[in-house]
Design goal:
With about 300 residues, this protein is mainly alpha-helical. Helix content is about 75%, strand content about 5%. The chain has a two-stranded antiparallel ribbon with strand order 1-2. The model has no long low-confidence stretch (mean pLDDT about 90).
Amino acid sequence: MDPLTIAQIAIGGLLLGAVYALLACGLNLIFGVMRVINVSHGQLMMLGSYATLWVFTSYGALPFLAPILSSPIPFIVVSVVVSMAVMFVVGVFLQRFFVQYVMRAPELTSLLLTFGLGITITNLALYFWSANYQSVPYLTGSFALGPLSLSLPRLVAFSFALVITLVVYFFLQRARFGKAIRATAQHGDMAMICGIDVGRVRLITFGLGAALAGAAGSLLITMYAVNPDMGQVFILKAFAIIVLGGMGSFSGAFLGALILGLVEGFTSYFFTVQLSEAAAYIILILVLLLKPSGLLGLRE
């Protein structure tokens, strides 16, 4: 196999991995702050996809928006913003009325609760949008970079995912509220003693994690056809990513997502697409056996 083919596969995997990173970073952020494993995170991503589908099917009915949204980049900007805003509100609602009551309960309790929420969301999606596969064929074609040919949907999705991830990362590192999130993640009781409104931090953090899932769903629908059951597939990939990168590590989730994208790309080329779908589960098993703390996680 020539180096050009290797480079082509690697770039395609990295472009997809950045979108995975949005989903995994949101899941890891929620776990890091609240120690809640949100099994319904994939369904939140699915709702983000349908929010973008709604924008795609509705903007023509708004004459003042049609000229703006007829161009790909403005459309993606608007759809991502709408998806993130809607999912932030949904996340705040779920945390306020459901998740906050199980945060100090055994982990199995939060797993069962979020599993039930995920099933409920899936069935509501089936009721409103049916089980049919739907897509937003807004971006097509490829972009030539020297001898390489890059998928235009993946390239645009990668660019948006990278910008969103960096913005959230620097928000957590530099902003006052971002530091409050990190302090709560390190030790919630100590953060409360220091005057941080831990309840508010957890509420907004869950909303932020859901917004990242919504952004991932908004970008994925430009590359894949979606249906209400898609959340179950992607949540397992997200778990593999955060286990690989390290539970609770935001940067670890990003690194793990890029690695998974590379592994899926090379596996589908050398073997089959079906086997590449199993790559996440193989990685999950190997990491749990060989390095349970992940690449950037800390052993507790």
